[in-house]
């Protein structure tokens, strides 16, 4: 009978070791599940943060696009450097659309303002310009015959 008792002891030991292994496996499973939940929560936080950053970047790109649109509406793109210089030299606050309509007694004549010492003065308008510069002292004005 010893062999039956030995067999039962052996089976009891095996059952006990299997039971211990099962309990240990369940503990490890709980630990890994807790770790998995923690990592999933961290991933969700990072994904939310990434989505928020993408939205902020899109918002900033849109704002930059709007500002560029406003800036381009105010300042036209330069066509050519030489043409741009001539246009800047010929523009003045006196050539605004409200003053060019002839409502100020100018008879519809175009006015051009030159800086002192400018080489753009023509010989026909130099006498009128010099008379005006003596009275004003700041800028020279000539009237073009139009």
From TrEMBL:
Residues in Striatin N-terminal domain copies: 7-90
Disordered: annotated span: 75-146
Segments of skewed composition (Polar residues): 89-98
Low complexity: compositionally biased ranges: 118-130
Record-linked InterPro entries: Striatin_N, WD_repeat_striatin
Gly residues: bias regions: 100-109
Ranges of Basic and acidic residues composition bias in the record: 78-88, 131-146
Record PANTHER family: CONNECTOR OF KINASE TO AP-1, ISOFORM E, STRIATIN
The protein's name: Striatin N-terminal domain-containing protein
Organism: Aphanomyces astaci (Crayfish plague agent)
């Amino acid at each position: 009978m010893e062999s039956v008792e030995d067999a039962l002891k052996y089976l009891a030991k095996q059952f006990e070791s299997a039971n211990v292994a099962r309990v240990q496996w369940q503990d490890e499973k709980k630990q890994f599940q807790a770790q998995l939940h923690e990592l999933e929560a961290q991933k969700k936080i990072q994904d939310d943060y990434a989505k928020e950053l993408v939205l902020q970047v899109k918002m900033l790109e849109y704002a930059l696009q709007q500002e560029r649109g406003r800036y381009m509406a105010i300042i036209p793109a330069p066509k050519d450097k030489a043409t741009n210089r001539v246009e800047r030299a010929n523009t003045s606050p006196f050539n605004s659309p409200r003053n060019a309509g002839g409502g100020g007694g100018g008879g519809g004549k175009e006015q051009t303002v030159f800086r002192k010492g400018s080489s753009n003065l023509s010989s026909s308008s130099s006498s009128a310009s010099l008379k005006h510069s003596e009275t004003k002292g700041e800028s020279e004005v000539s009237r073009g015959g139009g």
